[in-house]
Amino acid sequence: MYPLLLCSFISLTIIIERLIFWIMESGKRDPKLVDEMLHLIEQGDYQQALHLSKDASDYIVRIFHSGITHHHFSLECALEMTAGNELKRMKRFLRILDTIITLTPLLGILGTVIGIVISFDLLGGAGLDDPKAVIGGIAQALISTAMGLSVAIVNLIPYNYFMAKVEDAVAEMETHLTNFEILYKTGQIKNED
After folding, report:
1. What is the 3-state secondary structure (H, E, C) of the chain?
2. What would the pLDDT profile of 81-103 be if each residue is shown by its tens digit?
């Protein structure tokens, strides 16, 4: 039961941290700045776009800033690398939560098996004269399986919620980055004219 309690504590800490992260990220979103950046990119005004995005907290704008900063070298690589870093921030600790979801039922089953082994050992020593001791031991052993399953089930809901948030962010990044690349090429054509 102690490993299950430790897993519960760790998962609760991760869930709270991720909730705070996503609440703060939604507060940092700035769709107007994203639209303004795209307009400036379309116009080819990279200096103004860099100035506007310098200290931005919106993750889309930060990706744009990296692309503009490195547009002379490799725009696509800069966008991909920064988007990858943003995704890494969004997925932080989710592997641990996924491991806990997988591990806790197994720990519970292990606890049950150990409890049953101990109960049968008692049965071997006491004989069939005291079946209550054996049945009580088996019932107690099953508590760890129930606890392990409960921890996994309770953690599965926030895990899937956080993964859905990451998937939504990926879809949004892909849309904005495609727009960025198209408008960047438009801005280059305008600058050449």
Report:
1. CHHHHHHHHHHHHHHHHHHHHHHHHHHHCCHHHHHHHHHHHHHCCHHHHHHHHCCCCCHHHHHHHHHHHCCCCCHHHHHHHHHHHHHHHHCCCHHHHHHHHHHHHHHHHHHHHHHHHHHHHHHHHHHHHCHHHHHHHHHHHHHHHHHHHHHHHHHHHHHHHHHHHHHHHHHHHHHHHHHHHHHHHHHHHHHHC
2. 999 999 999 999 999 999 999 99
Banded pLDDT at 186 (limits 50, 70, 90): confident
Q: Where are the domains of the chain?
A: 2-26+34-104+149-192
* Alpha carbons 47 and 54: distance in angstroms, whole number: 10
- Burial group, residue 64, by CB count within 10 angstroms (0-12, 13-18, 19+): buried
**pTM for this prediction:** 0.85
pLDDT tens-place string over residues 49-67: 999 999 899 999 999 999 9
Give the pLDDT confidence score for residue 129 in this predicted structure. Answer: 63
Q: Looking at this protein, which amino acid is placed at residue 45? A: D
CB of 95 within 8 A of CB of 86? no
Give the number of other CB atoms < 10 A from CB of residue 155: 22
Report the alpha-carbon distance of residue 113 to residue 143 in Å, rounded: 11
Separation between Cα atoms, residue 117 and residue 138, nearest integer Å: 9
